[in-house]
Amino acid sequence: MTIKAILKGAVIAGAVSCFGAGAALAQGAGCEATEFSAKTGELYLKAETELLQNKNAQAALQALNQLRNQELNCYEQGAVLKLGAAIKIEAGDYAGAVRDLESALNQGYIPASESTNTYYNIFQIYLSQNDLNKAIEYATKWINAGGKPDRDGMWQLAVINQKLDRNQEALKWAEQVFAKDGPNADRQVYDFLIYLYDATGQRAKKAQLLEQLLAKNPNERKLWDAIAGDYFQADQERKAFEVQKAMYLGGILKTEDELMRIVNFYNRFNAPFPAARILEKEMNAGRISKTYERMELLANLYQVAREFDRAIPVIEEAARMNNSGAMYERLGRSYAELQEWAKAEDALIKAINSGGVKDKGLAWVLIGQSRYERDDRAGAREAFRNANNRGGRGWLAFMDSEEATEVALVRFEAQSLVQDTKNEKERCAQLAVLGEGNAPEACATVDERLKAAEEALAKLGGS
Fold it and tell me: Which helix (H) or strand (E) holds 373?
């Protein structure tokens, strides 16, 4: 059964018996009505029939809208909200369904005996839409109202809380799942608990769980290797990685090859930042040799993770190790990402002078951009010409257009000033015929100002 069918069935459960003995939809504290009128009852049945028998959500909604246009008592209003939620679920309007159910709760149309299930239904609707924050809000209301999750419900709550970084709450539910499953619990339960114990710093419980998982002393290296080897042979690299990660966290891995395997695992599973942190930590501890190749890898990992601030000192050190033009170029690009334009230019100039830059044209374009951003237009033009590529020519064309636009704007302003002054002179001439004292004082200088404006325009090549 689909989530839509489950939710729809749960929402309308009880509402279909509104015409039977003891109406299922109880009224609020101030509502004395207990049934539909003849006309509203007919419309309600029509909407319900279209939804449940004909599977026609649109027709059901039309009938329900007709019902809403009637004068409804409080009992009918509650029934309409509840059936409306079911119709909206069928139509895929989950947000609308939640609004109807919340409205029914807030207006007291759902009694205490039904509120627990209603909270659960809203929780499931939000969960189906991956709105985890609202889902956990209503899961909490459901539990506070007396809801009791079964084993699968506990697992669901554990996973949701973990996704919301509420690891302590996730652990509470995960431990209950493990208690129900016992030692034969599925591996994902073990893995999940190991992760949560790591995340919450509960190393003793983690060790106890590893003992159950291995059924032997967790510090016995051969057992760890055997488990990891089995996962490798079964092409389950993700699980092999989890074992290797636990071995690393437990201090079992010692050699450089073993430590590099962990770094490469993280990188392979698209986690460049943890890979970089481990690599840097182990190089600083002297357990992984700090070679140019290792430094280059570390810089790559930080850059892929877009941790440019962390990448820069690594790149600087690598560049100094063998005066690498390629590494200085990377340093320049990193500074450009951070918009530290002066440092970007300095690094890129070093890259060009050191040699080894694959695309000098691109380096010159970045140098030109760094100068442009610092308002060194002459220097920027020089760099773009040095680039001698489409990017450089594009920048030069842009700067030409930018400067032409600025000149045109100055000329336009000069032309506008001439025209405005001419218009002012005409107004002064018209006022002069009315006699002395009727023209503004500014009229006395209008000829002088007009002459100055025309001269300024002439210098700009305008007329």
Answer: helix 360-373
Q: Which two tokens stand for residue 163?
A: 């996704």
User: What are phi and psi for residue 254, nearest 5 degrees?
Assistant: -125, -40
Report how far residue 301's alpha carbon sits from residue 113's, in angstroms, rounded to the nearest whole number.
Answer: 56
Region class of 63: left (phi > 0), else alpha (psi between -120 and 50), else beta: alpha
Residue located via tokens 């005066």:
323
| Alpha-carbon dihedral angle through residues 152, 154, 160, 165, given to the nearest 10 degrees | -150
Q: Per-residue pLDDT tens for 405-422?
A: 877 777 778 788 878 888
- Between CA 368 and CA 273 the distance in angstroms is 32
Domain ranges of the chain: 1-146, 408-459
Question: Using an 8 Å Cβ cutoff, are 399 and 377 in contact?
Answer: yes
**1-146 adopts what CATH topology?**
1.25.40
Residues of the chain with pLDDT below 70 are 1-35, 37-38, 47, 50-54, 57, 63, 203-204, 207-208, 210-211, 215-220, 222-223, 226-227, 230, 233-234, 435-438, 462-463
Residue 221 token pair: 């290296």
Structure tokens at 457: 């325009």
The rounded radius of gyration (Å) of the Cα atoms in the chain is: 37
> Are 262 and 278 in contact, with CB atoms under 8 Å apart?
yes
Query: What does 310-350 look like in DSSP terms, one character per residue?
Result: HHHHHHHHHHHHHT-HHHHHHHHHHHHHTT-HHHHHHHHHH
Beta-carbon contacts of residue 322 (< 8 Å; ≥ 6 apart): 292
3-class SS letters over 203-272: HHHHHHHHHHHHCCCCCCHHHHHHHHHHHHHCCCHHHHHHHHHHHHHCCCCCCHHHHHHHHHHHHHCCCH
Q: What is the pLDDT of residues 349-405, one digit of tens each?
A: 999 988 878 889 999 999 999 999 999 999 999 999 999 999 999 999 998 888 888
- Report whether 292 contacts 273 (CB < 8 A): no
Category of 133 on φ-ψ map: left (φ > 0), alpha (ψ -120 to 50) or beta:
alpha
